[in-house]
Design a protein that fits this description.
2 domains, 7-stranded antiparallel sheet, SH3 type barrels
């Protein structure tokens, strides 16, 4: 399971909660799948009945079974998890060779930086040392698992 949010506080008297999202975008949350909140050491499933966006990384939500201020206050400060997100695939890319669009070697992936909404990779390059490059699906030209190579369309000025 992956942590997707933290319950910041209750909101109102009917059990509404204010969540702060962690490493996910509001549009990535699947309202058809349960989220889990740990209670007494066990993950308890809840469904999101309603969801209203509050800024870039906060949501007001109603969860199944949370109907009062007391219910909501009991969840304040707790982490929210989901099991439908793929676990850290980016870690599998460490060590891969990065090529530019022309097929020339840029360097090797050393690490990744998970900036919310903007996944980036740290690439060890011979010429510039370590550089930070965006890893967005629009910039990926191709990926070859057999050769552990990723070809990127690198915007001008990043190298």
């Amino acid at each position: 399971m992956q942590k997707i949010a933290q319950v910041l506080k209750s909101n109102g008297t009917d059990g509404e909660l204010l969540l702060s999202l962690v490493n996910v975008l509001p549009e990535d949350i699947d309202l058809q799948e349960p989220v889990f909140i740990e209670m007494d050491g066990l993950p308890v499933p809840y469904f999101i009945e309603s969801c209203t966006r509050r800024g870039a990384s906060r949501l007001l939500v109603h969860l199944t079974g949370v109907r009062s201020l007391e219910d909501a206050d009991e969840l304040a400060g707790k982490d929210v998890f989901a099991d439908y997100f793929e676990e850290d695939e980016e870690e599998d890319l460490v060590g891969w060779t990065v090529l530019d669009e022309k097929g020339e070697t840029v360097g090797k992936i050393a690490d990744y930086e998970d900036i919310p909404g903007n996944l980036c990779i740290w690439v060890d390059t011979p010429a510039k040392g370590q550089v930070l490059l965006p890893l967005h699906e629009d910039l990926i030209v191709s990926m070859d698992e057999e050769t552990a190579e990723i070809r990127l369309r690198i915007p001008d000025g990043l190298l």
